[in-house]
Design goal:
The protein has about 280 residues and is α/β, with parallel strands linked by helices. The chain has one domain: 3-Layer(aba) Sandwich (Glycerol-3-phosphate (1)-acyltransferase). Strands 1, 2, 3, 4, 5, 6, 7 and 8 form an 8-stranded mixed β-sheet that branches. The longest helix has about 35 residues. The chain starts with 8 loop residues before the first helix and ends with a helix.
Amino acid sequence: MTLSPRVDPGRAESTWRDAVPPPCAPPSGFRDWLRVLRRGGGAVLVLLAGVLLILPMRGVERLFYGRRRPWTGPHVQMVCRLTLACMGIRWSCRGQPMRGPGAVVANHSSWLDILVLNAAVPVFFVSKSEVADWPGINILTRVTDTHFVIRDPRLASAQAQEFAARVRAGHRLLFFPEGTSTDGRRLLPFKATLFQGFLDPALPEGLAIQPVSALYQAPEGADPRFYGWWGDMDLGPHLLAVLAARRQGRVRVVLHDPIPAAGQTRKTLAIACEDAVRRGMAI
């Protein structure tokens, strides 16, 4: 199998910093605001109902399964699919979710990734600890059991143990190896240091990593980077621009074959996952 060429890390970083985000067109007129209210209102109601239902569901689930999430995982998946439907964003998925112990890595393009990737497969996002304090977002992250990481070398061992415990409990933790979001039209080099955690001897045998590609297609006539959210872009204006769009685009998710971690180094594992994600974005 021929692997797609990898971009030189230094050149990719330089080119990426030269990119200028497209302007977010605010809602203009009654019809635009009506779309915002219709789509946004429907999405909020679905999310609110999902949160209210997951709390008692998780309580009962914990009694029978402990840390495992056989009910609430699919529940979150369905809530995210319904939310995307309310927003009018068409969604499709190709491939099968992995079986057995492991984690998921994907390209990172937008705040929409939370909905899109959860719609494709039940996962638990890994996020920097600062997100836990973001108003509104912190409620969703807590309810969905997001795995927060503190960037402190002194806590690396304890965090590795927690990661191993969640993998043993059957959780699919999702990482973004690029380390930042992009405009959705490119893939930055994967950071190999992240993959060291997948080689910890405390992890279950047979651990595998499933690469996932998410490719956004902008509405007809819009900037191809329409759904990308990165750099210093504000969330509010971008959210309103997406909800007010006269026509929505679509997003395609590709679930690639899992890559066994056994016999790999962090660099070979990072390259293999990056190449898989890149091929999926080129389809």
